[in-house]
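Me: I'm a chemist; would you kindly supply a protein sequence with its structure tokens?

Assistant:
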Amino acid sequence: MKKLLLTLTAVAGLTFASQAQEFGFKKTDFIVEGNFSANTKNNKTAEKKENSFNFNPSVGYFVSDKVAVGLDFNFGNLKATDYSGTNDTYNKSSNFGVGAYGRYYFLDLGSRFKTYAQLAAGYQQRTGEVNNGTTTTDIPKVKGFGAGAGLGMNYFVTENIAINFGLTDLLSFGTAKEDGGKSSNEFNANINSFNNFFDTAKFGLTFKF
């Protein structure tokens, strides 16, 4: 009987501890998010290879239990090399971006899933160079501005760590201008993404403090 009582007490304690966990956000919470990707392709038949990486960190602050504002950044690099000739040739580009966002959490799917809508706007610039095997030439710098509206979801693994799914940009607008050139504008409405949003998802981690 004593062993049974101790077992029941332990189970009750674990159940209470699990129920006591609070998943979600509240006013004055601070979050750090980020995702990182790196890719390498080497086509030995065509004697071409490509290396790229992209890093997107962001920080945010909850001004209420459901609304967060923050800053995000983007760092990326791409290098495509052709080694089929006597001398290697390559194209290389780097990009940097900074922006601001506002996020509204509007739906809880159970205790761990938190769904949000987000508006964001930011500045981007890209620089690069081309090497023909003997000389290197700078590519004209490109500067641009973009804005978009999207959806996302956090799944809480612990009280302070969540997996972030950036599902899709439903609406986006961008304008870019090359040094010495004319500007170009682009508008996208990805309403169809509701049917295949996991094809365009961005995955990362969210840390709550």
